[in-house]
Amino acid sequence: MRGIDFLGLSRIARQSQHCARDLVLIIGRELPHGVESLFEQFCHRQKISPSCAERKRVFLTPLRPLLRRSSHWARTLPIVSFDLLRSSPVALMPVSDALAAVLAGAEPLPHEMAALDAAFHRVLARDVAALRTQPPEAMSAMDGYAVRAADAVTVDSTLTVIGEVAAGRPFAGSVGPGEAVRIFTGGIIPTGANAVVIQEDTVADGKQVTIKEAAIAGRHIRPAGVDFSEGDVLLRRGARLTERDLALAAAMNHPQLVVCRRPKVAILATGDELVLPGSKPGHGQIVYSNGYALHALARSEGAETIDLGIAADTLESTAAGIRRARESGADILVTSGGASVGDHDLVQQALRDEGIAMAFWKIAMRPGKPMMHGRLGAMRVIGLPGNPVSSYVCAFLFMVPLIRALSGRSVIHHRHERAVLGKDVGANDMRADYLRARLEERDDGALVAVPVNHQDSSLLANLAAAQALLVRAPFAPRAEAGTPCEVLRLPV
Ligand SMILES: Nc1nc2c(c(=O)[nH]1)N[C@H]1C(S)=C(S)[C@@H](COP(=O)(O)OP(=O)(O)OC[C@H]3O[C@@H](n4cnc5c(N)ncnc54)[C@H](O)[C@@H]3O)O[C@H]1N2
Ligand code: MOO
Questions:
Q1: DSSP designation for 116
Q2: pTM over 0.90, yes/no
Q3: Same domain, 279 and 254
Q4: What ipTM score was computed for the predicted complex, to two decimals?
Q5: Ligand 2 atom showing the smallest separation from residue 387 Cα
Q6: Which of 285-294, 374-383, 472-481 is predicted with the least confidence, judged by mean pLDDT?
Q7: Going by C-beta distance under 8 Å and a sequence separation of 6 or more, which residues neighbour residue 356?
Q8: Range of 85's domain?
Q9: Which of 169, 196, 425, 465 has an alpha carbon within 20 to 30 A of 278's alpha carbon?
Q10: Mean pLDDT of the 393-408 span
Q11: 8 Å CB contact between 433 and 365
């Protein structure tokens, strides 16, 4: 038997139990000879049953039969997979566990004041109550005449105009029997009047006005407080302020609002091969693209971004980039590239040298398997894979909710939407799949998700053409066009 012993197996199983799942599968690409008996010994010592019954917490199973199986449990169980042939087992963390790890302890950043004109898209740190009643008094909704309805129920009644009220210029007197006051939209209804007759329904003649359409009590009058009353809480903590919210806050008489500080996201690319767009790439060079999507995505979520440029494929250069991120006071460091297992993939080592507390490396997802996450002091680190689609998809799935949580937003998760498959998809393996898909609308209004033909994680043209990620759970069975599926809409 290669590479696995009793202690190794125990370590794997202990690690697998740390992911706080009710049920865990330990999966080997193939099970080395003898591992079953080790597993039985392990289960015996841990007092867990190695058989397939419902009470068990840990299963050992070879991958192939599992993939062939389409029974309910194989499709729906959370999976932690370990390569049993390696002496140091490597876990692929389930997406939901990885997201929980990224979001662990992510509290809203400290509060600050923002003037209204700088508060667009900021996140409220406190509920906002109205400082006044709106409108503060009954107001006219139209240009016309404020009257006592009882005096103007008959067509052709003639009233004496005793004054005028415009927005901001109230009428000091009161309207008595047989009297009217000329009024304009936004004018305060004078005492005594209880209706407005619009000017199109009147004939004016000097100080006299003749009513051509019977008045109705309350007509064209906005009662005091019809919009809101002093003390009403109309904007809630955690809301990202829209332009409509800003107008409302202004009407509530708030010149500034208490918001959460924006997260600072530092972005560090790695790779000797990268050259900037517009240059003349040499043989084997690749045009840098990931950062453009990452900066824009982070900013559109309300973060401030810091560009740390491109580190060379050396530990020194990568570590220098990481230190610049710390010096800049970044809340989040996002690296791209160098996350995998190649000789030039140095990000993990550089982060470890800088003292990172690594939470995970490798997720059971496609694209994006080699993503890593950890903390360097207060700074959260998301190590994205270099492939452009992997880097974007991971940023969308993990960086965005983290930015939202630190920004203080009450809704941080992407919304899964129901759709139907636009074409057949094959059975999935142990990694959750995030297929780039176009969205179409069927005649009956149903949303149809059509996965693009080529899903390779280097294909930016396909990513740009997609409007959604079609989510396929680990071990999802083959599914035919027309069957329900779940999608995450990509930002527009
Ligand atoms: N033996 C294995 N090889 C690979 C594995 C594995 O498990 N075993 N995983 C594959 C997967 S999945 C991914 S994803 C990639 C990720 O690798 P890295 O994070 O180390 O990325 P790089 O090697 O640095 O780059 C990959 C690819 O992307 C290009 N790149 C990188 N940064 C940028 C950028 N800022 N703009 C545009 N393009 C970029 C880079 O030039 C490479 O072509 O590893 C697989 N390999
Ligand atoms: O999983 Mo990697 O992210 O395919 O390219």
A1: G
A2: no
A3: no
A4: 0.97
A5: 5
A6: 472-481
A7: 374, 375, 376, 381
A8: 6-92
A9: 465
A10: 98
A11: yes
